[in-house]
Design brief:
It is a single chain. With about 375 residues, the protein is of the alpha+beta class. The chain has helices at about 5-45, 60-105, 120-130, 130-135, 140-145, 150-165, 205-220, 230-250, 265-270, 270-290, 315-325, 355-375, and strands at about 110, 115-120, 165-175, 180-190, 195-205, 250-260, 295-300, 300-310, 330, 340, 340-350, 380. Strand 11, helix 12 and strand 12 form a beta-alpha-beta unit. It is rod-shaped. About 25% of the residues are buried.
């Protein structure tokens, strides 16, 4: 299988052979015509020319032939020199192109119009973990399985065939099973008058960048102490849940939970113990909720459960009771310190007196304060015991 520059080299070689044949043919033709003129045709033409003519000696005839050949050679020397310089420049440019391709920091490959890999550079070998000998001649669909899924690869190939180029972000899995991301650019190049089409695939590994972005996004949307979604992410999910509720009519409830007796923990044992108590409280509340129900830290010692597809008030009340019962055992933190906290729960059901997601949160918050006034460690529905 030829490398990426072999086609260009073959074209240059073909032109060199054609030029050599042209030069040889021209010199031979001129020499033959000169010899024919001096040794034959001149005798037939002289009688019809004006002036006095005499027959040339054999030496004069050969002098004429040699002179013609020399002038022909000198006349052809200029295009030969020009072509030689151009061929040398083309050869240097081709070598430079090959070096740029081979040593480029970006993983690159060249494929035929049928999708067979013709060449890969050193960066691609490191990127894909394959030797060049294992890549050349292989369909690109077999080499890009780790870079993108089959459906994405098919869409890229179709787009390149239709538009002549494609660029975008693709995701795959490494051999170790971890996710990886790449920025892929595909372009078509044509060679010669027949329009031989090759494709150049260029990859840029952006996995580190994507992981940094994901980490930054997670930090922006999650509580650093408990790892739970923060208020910002809670409102995003609540808006989506409320929209789904309005479209389908499925049950939707918000449980607003405030810890009872938590302030003395910070006052007596300090914030380190208080932070550990908050982490354990978050874990207990998370275990009470269903897997599909988001649990968020609203702020301080306040938490929110967003329960979707609840059949009615009974389901929401059962969830609230589980949260209250989860705090019956004392919370044990480091150094054997145990603290006792409770939970007051306010419940707001969508569809009763509420018009939007923000009103749902406010109603559940107000109901929680009613539960606190009722002595705590209990639950209250929005609109009750006011």
């Amino acid at each position: 299988m030829p490398d990426v520059t072999s086609y260009r080299f073959s074209v240059s070689s073909l032109k060199a052979r054609e030029l050599a044949l042209f030069v040889a043919g021209t010199v031979t033709g001129v020499a033959l015509l000169a010899m024919a003129w001096k040794f034959g045709i001149e005798e037939w033409v002289d009688p019809f020319l004006p002036g006095t003519h005499h027959e040339d000696s054999e030496a004069e005839r050969w002098e004429f032939v040699i002179a013609c050949a020399m002038f022909t050679g000198l006349g052809l020397a200029l295009p030969i020199l020009a072509y030689s310089r151009l061929a040398a420049e083309n050869l240097a440019a081709a070598q430079l192109s090959r070096d740029v391709f081979v040593l480029a920091p970006q993983p690159m490959m060249v494929t035929s119009s049928r999708g067979l890999v013709l060449a890969v550079n050193q960066a691609w070998e490191s990127f894909a973990g394959l030797q060049k000998s294992h890549a050349v001649g292989v369909p690109i669909t077999a080499l890009c399985e780790s870079v993108m899924d089959a459906g994405m690869l098919r869409r890229v190939v179709e787009s390149v065939d239709h538009a002549g180029a494609w660029a975008g972000e693709v995701q795959g899995m490494t051999k170790a099973g971890s996710p990886c991301w790449s920025w892929l650019a595909v372009n078509i190049i044509k060679h010669g008058e027949e329009g031989v089409r090759h494709q150049v695939w260029s990859f840029s590994d952006i996995t580190a960048q994507k992981l940094r972005e994901a980490s930054a996004e997670h930090a922006a949307l999650h509580d650093p102490l408990t790892g739970l979604p923060n208020r910002r992410l809670l409102y995003q999910r609540l808006e989506r849940a409320f929209t789904f509720y309005r479209q389908t009519g499925g049950g939707l409830a918000v449980l607003f939970i405030d810890l009872d007796g938590f302030k003395p923990v910070n006052d007596i044992y300090g914030h380190d113990v208080g932070d550990q108590a908050l982490q354990e409280s978050a874990d207990r509340i998370r275990r009470c909720a269903r897997v599909e129900d988001p649990v968020a830290r609203f702020g301080g010692d306040e938490f929110v459960i967003l329960a979707g597809n609840v059949a009615g008030p009974e389901d929401a009340a059962a969830l609230a009771r589980r949260c209250i019962e989860a705090f019956q055992p004392e919370i044990t933190v480091r150094d054997g310190v145990s603290v006792r906290v409770g939970a007051s729960v306010g419940i707001a059901l969508a569809g009763q007196v509420l018009q939007d997601a923000d009103a749902l949160i406010r109603a559940a918050d107000e109901a929680m304060y009613v539960a606190k006034r009722n002595g705590g460690r209990c639950y209250v529905f929005a609109g009750e015991n006011r």
